[in-house]
Prior knowledge:
Strand content of chain A: under 5%
Number of helices of chain B: 21
CATH superfamily of the largest domain in chain B: P-loop containing nucleotide triphosphate hydrolases
Largest sheet of chain A: none
Number of strands of chain A: 0
Low-confidence stretches of chain A: 1-15
Oligomer: heterodimer
Radius of gyration of chain A: 24 Å
Amino acid sequence: MSALPDIDALPALPPKRADWLFRIGLVIVITVTILAAIGPYIGPYDPMLTTVRVAQPPPSLVEIPGLLTSWFAGTLPYPPHFMGTDVSGYDIFSRVIAAPRTDLVIALTANFLSLAVGVFLGLIAGYFRNVATELLMRVSDVMQSFPVFISAMVLVTLAGRSTSNIVIALAFVYIPIYIRLTRAEVLSQKSRGFVEAARAMGNSEIAIALRHVLPNSLTPALIQSSVTIGFAILLTAGLSFVGAGVRPPTPEWGLMISTGANTIILGEWWPSVFPGIAISLTVFGFAVLGNALERRYEDG
Amino acid sequence: MAEPILKVRNLAVGYPTPAGMLQPVKGVSFDIDAREVVGLVGDAGSGKSTTALALLGLARAPGKIMGGSVKFDGRNLLTLPDEDIRAIRGRDIGIIVQNPRAALNPMLKVGRQIGNAYAAHNGGSASDARAQAIEMLRMVGINDPERRVDTFAHELSGGMAQRALIAMALSSRPRLLIADEPTSGLDVTIQAQFLDQMWQTVQMTGSAILLVTQELGVIANYCDRVLVLHEGRIVEDAPVRQFFAAPRHPYSQDVLRLYREKGSDYPAQVASGAPVLMQAKGLTKNFPIRHSSKVVHAVDQVALTIRKGEAVGLVGESGSGKTTVGRCLVRLVDPTDGTILFGGTDLSRLSNAAMRGYRSRVQIVFQDPFDSVNPRWTIAQILDEPLRLHSTDDAAARRKRAAEVLALVNLPEALLDRKPKGLGAGALQRINIARALILRPDFMVLDEPTSVLAPRARNALIALLARLQAELGISFLFISHDLTTVRFLCQRVAVMYLGQIVEEGSVEQVFSAPQHPYSRALLSAHLFPDPTHRRVDHPEAAALQGEIPSPIDLPKGCYLASRCGFANDACRSTPQVLTQQDGRAVRCHRVVAGEI
Lengths: 300, 596
């Protein structure tokens, strides 16, 4: 072996832009995660309680420093409504930062359920190819041919509008993606030399599948997780928006947009725009993080 | 003495890495004379390809040419403006890259591609370009060039596509041709055809060649002079005979050691009374074709006998079925028919579960060392796996044994806690061998274990295998297309063609006097690293014509009949049988009858 590495194998330096996006994505994802833990307790108001100030617009940007100063000095009669209040008098800011507790928890749980089931089925479908696994793939084709939103809506409506049913519905619609990703990776990994070597050593097929093929086939599914979590948040919000999601007055972005949508025609834009921005940023954060991870994986 | 056409001085190429600037080429100087064939040899990563590209003022991004000069025709290519150097590339300096088959555009007619390459540098009308294309195709020995000029790449056979590529590279009659490993991954017969054609064509165009390669056989047979590149520097620059006879630099000596020490002796035969360890009879494997009732006849009635302590070579071109035979013997592939007797047990009849008990005694080492180890495991875990499955030792004893086999293959114990990433092909292949040895098997299949290794690592591995065979008395089936290696390692050899063994005998019998026309062709195409018998100085008649028949629709008579110069009507109509004769076997009725 020469001391010099093979120049063909030298990794290209990752492009700067991707790194920058990766960091933004990471900051957003971490912020949303922290809010999911403590969001309901740190807002100026209880997100579940109404105030007497109904449909109050948010202060303008120039007023905010003054408001903060007097709030901390204790000279305000009540804490400021940074994003205004809605028609029922809920403080929108407190609800926007409390919502990840609902949205992220639903999305995370759903994602990990479908990741676990999808990877398991994908491993079986890729490793043991037979009539049963071909049938499984055709079923998953059919599932994928329905728009996820419609499938999820129908499932929740049929099963009843509870948080656990929403989680199950979301998990169900994302399973085919994980089956397909894992199966493709298993198909390429199972023909590799170390798998054949493991067979030549006397491993059973199940041991080969679990010890050699599975760990080497996980990466695409794990990267997809980041993207899926983002879209699951969007789907959770979407379901509430059409009334098939969590019940009011749970602080939830989609529900807040739905409530605000009724009054937007009166010029009251703030009850729906602020949760809308929150959803966009969150989905964007998870998506760019997923993209950046994928690029890093492809570069080795 | 005429002025050299290319003068390279202190050429340096750098690559930025996170750890700082890396210099794969650091100060290379050499000359190439007109009409000279110069070989550039070195390990993977020694900077060969980078040097070749830099001669054209190119560097693969993010690399940069750091300094030096490349004088061609008295002009420094590194300081020329872009337009001027573009005019030189392709016109005055031609290039043939690795994997020639992929280098033809499938969407354009062959003549158009050659004509475009010509017209880009010489101008002229479309009909001029076409006439030139026809002329070049004729020069590279393609029959009926007026018709071939209008075919697409997929309509040409592999051999013709390669000729077309040579025609394209030489269409402007460049003064220098840079060929970067043009034959890596090709079979020996095709490799020889390609290099012969390239060599003959430059004799007509008068070009000089810089031939980048890892193969000493290619150097010895085609080159006038050798440049040895080691760690980014030229460490030796010598005429080819002097290089093989008296290499000066320690690296060159290392590369050539095996050939120099072993000389021309054949390995000693195993005593004829040695017990038979592995015996395959009537081994047959057909692979069904999807959506068809036809099958691929991969292995056809193969019989092999391997005695205790014996190394048997199995040679043949790709597609001959030799790898499938190896896999059948260790039951990674279930044979369609036949028996595999191993110490009295027929392995082909065992259930998968019963076979697992024999896995500790028959082992296999694969061709691609990088692919054969689980990339997520440490070397310790990789070596531990067979022990965990087959021994009752505790973890400490197993780790001790792992360290033992590492020492046996000349690797430091410190590797145990590393992962495969970052290890070279040679080291990884030793780990694969260590893993196969760890259970002290009686029999090992080695499936082209040296084919991806650089010359020095390959030599070291061959020496290691020879030592293991002598010390441990393991029997090997050594599958290889590299006849030089087989000649060093094996006592007996079997030649396969289209799933059948066509000749079998001791290495000495087969190598010194091959009988079957196919063995003769294979041996004559093989490039032995011996510059005193250069192929280009002793032109041999093309031994085989045409292409290998499809293993799906096999010919009725002898499989070689369509390509064999000795074939008569009887050959074409009657299937041939393997006939035993003075300790060797041959599948050719004309040889048996003493006619050829």
